[in-house]
Each structure stands twice: as C-alpha cells, then as structure tokens.
Amino acid sequence: MKRIAVLTSGGDAPGMNAAIRAVVRRGIFNNLEIFGVRHGYQGLMEGSFVPLELGSVGDIIHRGGTILYSARSEKFKTEEGQKSALDQLKGNGIEGLIVIGGDGSFRGALQLTKKGFPTIGIPGTIDNDIPCTDFTLGFDTAVNTVIDAIDKIRDTATSHERTYVIEVMGRDAGDIALWSGLAGGAESILIPEAETNLDDLCQRLIQGHKRGKKHSIIIVAEGVSSGSEIGNLIRERTGFETRVTVLGHIQRGGSPSAFDRLLGSRMGAEAVDLLLAGEAGVMVGIQNNHMIAVPFEEALSQTHQPSLDLYDLARTLSI
Ligand code: ADP
Ligand code: F6P
C-alpha cells in the first residue's frame, strides 16, 4: 500500500484534527502518500482530494472542527453514489481509506469495504453512541463544555433562587447528559435510556425546597424531550420560577481536551497501522485504555448503552 486517503463525515467533533494529524504523520513515517478528502462522502464522489504533507497538519492538534470539512450526503447512500466514490478512489491511485465519523459514516464505509475497497473507521462524534468503544472522539470535550455551562448557570441560579433546565445534545443517547450531569452536580438527569418520571422529579424538587434548597439544575438529553417542554411541566407542577437553556452547537466546538487530543492521536495512528497490516472493514476503538479493532458489522449490529451505574450514582448523590 502506497497511497491512502482520510475523510471526516457526519457531525464534526473536537479531536478530529488530532486524528487527521496522526493519520498523516504515521502514514508519512511509513512512507505512504496521504490525501485528504474535503467534505466527507460528498467530496469523495466529486474527487475533492488534497495532498497532505507533514506541514499541512501543523498547528491543528489544538483546534476544534475539522480542517477537511464535514458533510452529510444522501447521494452517497445510493449504488450510483458509491460507484462514483470508488471510481474516484481508484482513478487517483488510492488504495485505502480512513473514515472519521459516527455510525452513519461507518455504514457508508462498510458499503465501500463490501465492494472491495479497504476502509477503516475512527469513531468521531460528541454523542459517545458507538458500541464496542468506551469513548468516541469529542465526547470528553463536549462534557467539559457542558460542565462549564452548568457552573455558570449555577451562579445565577443561586443568586435568583431559580430552577434551571439545561437541554444537551446526544441525539438518541444520554451519555453527554449523564456524564455532565454527574460531574456538574445536577439535581436530576433525564436520559432516553432510563424511564422519565416527572412526578418523582417534581416531588424531589419540592422536598429539597422544603429542606431549604432554593435552586436546582435539571439536565435533559435532547433524546428525551425538549428542555422547554420539561421546563413548562416543572413550572406548572411545582410553581417554582424556572428557566430553560438549550446549549446547542456550542457543544460541538472548542479546543479538544487533553483526553480527546490523545485519543485522536492514538486512533489515527492505529488506523494507519491496521491498513498497513492488511485489515479492512473495521473500526478502531478504545477498551480499558487499549486500542482495539472491531468489524463494522459487529459494532453496527449492537446498541450502545451508557453506564447506568453512573445514573444510579447520580441519583444517590443528588438527594
Ligand atoms: P454520523 O456519521 O455522525 O452518524 P450521519 O448519520 O449523518 O452522521 O452519516 C453521515 C453520512 O454517512 C451520511 O450523510 C451518508 O452519506 C453516509 N451514510 C449514512 N448511512 C449510510 C448507509 N446506510 N449507507 C451508505 N452511506 C451512509
Ligand atoms: O451527532 C452529533 C450531533 O451534534 C447530535 O448530538 C445532534 O443531535 C446532531 O448532531 C445535530 O446535527 P446538526 O449538525 O445537523 O444540527
């Protein structure tokens, strides 16, 4: 193998640049030529390749987003779209592809592998919703962004003795809500993977209020409901002055944490090593601090589960 390409696809995540840097540097270290594909699968179908040298990835390890841009493409889901992508790869003499993205991006990579093109995945999404890996790239940074917001909201919640509902991202997964809620000392955390009992939540708020607790923070994962709907229900049932904050896309940006820089560096290098070892159709993951490789089909056939012991711990610590 002499020439490989790398692309970022789906929602961007802090740490993607660290992974691109590692792919390029590990590849060049092994005498490979590296090409970046701009705009994910859209750019792949259009042949939007850019040569990446050692210097192309200088000064990016600390930057959020992705220097290769990201995109979503409906056309790539079709046979015609995948054929265009394969024609572009082969026409440019590329022999292996590294896809940094979420489960949708891996479904696309699996199609390329099934059609005979060696593809390796790196899980990059703030949602932490990919099975078979303890962490995805960007999750740690997103959790840190959320706890920074919780700390700030706590200041004003305390001053005004208000109840705050904070809606966080995660698509269908509750990991961001769970980890940030626990680390931010939230009174309640609502996640899609656990039953939401608003009567119980309101009772706990009222009991806390009777004990002298005048402010509360409730974290709602977007996969449960909108923050405003939960805020309205709490206001109606408790009569407490309640405000709602939707953190939105700020959770996707920012300089990656040390953890995500390290994870991106390790996963990027591992992906190159796997291609060189002749592997294809696998995703890099981290389990118990070790790099592992899992077939796409195995990862995609499973359902991600957050650590529900953390959920129980959060309930215990927020009484
Ligand atoms: P993520 O990778 O973050 O989960 P998406 O689900 O939006 O993001 O997927 C990113 C892109 O991957 C899609 O826009 C599409 O081009 C490609 N993709 C998703 N699902 C499939 C599929 N079943 N077959 C082929 N390509 C897919
Ligand atoms: O998958 C990452 C994510 O940020 C989810 O948490 C969120 O639901 C979604 O992407 C938002 O997507 P968009 O960028 O299309 O608004």
Can you give a write-up of this model?
It is a single chain. By secondary structure, the chain is α/β, with parallel strands linked by helices. It folds into two domains: 181 residues, Rossmann fold; 113 residues, Rossmann fold (3-Layer(aba) Sandwich). The strands form two sheets. A seven-stranded mixed β-sheet has the order 3-2-1-4-5-10-11, sandwiched between helices. It has a four-stranded parallel β-sheet with strand order 7-8-6-9, with helices on both faces. A hairpin with a 2-residue loop joins strand 10 and strand 11. The longest helix has 22 residues. It starts with a strand and ends with a helix. The model has no long low-confidence stretch (mean pLDDT 97). The structure holds adenosine-5'-diphosphate and 6-O-phosphono-beta-D-fructofuranose (F6P). Adenosine-5'-diphosphate binds next to helix 4.
Here the CATH topology of the largest domain equals Rossmann fold
How many structural domains are formed by the residues? 2
Beta-strand share of residues: 15-25%
Describe the strand arrangement of the main beta sheet, using strand numbers.
3-2-1-4-5-10-11
User: What structural class should be given to the helix and strand makeup?
Assistant: alpha/beta
Mean model confidence by pLDDT: 97
Could you give the distance between the termini? Answer: 58 Å
CATH architecture of the largest domain: 3-Layer(aba) Sandwich
> How much is the radius of gyration in Å?
22 Å
Uncertain spans: none
Total of helices: 11
> Mind telling me the CATH class of the largest domain?
Alpha Beta
Secondary-structure element string: EHEHEHEHEHEHEHEHEHEEHH
Please count the beta strands (DSSP E, at least 2 residues each): 11
* Share of helix, binned: 40-55%
Biggest sheet descriptor: 7 strands, mixed
The hetero molecules present are: adenosine-5'-diphosphate, 6-O-phosphono-beta-D-fructofuranose
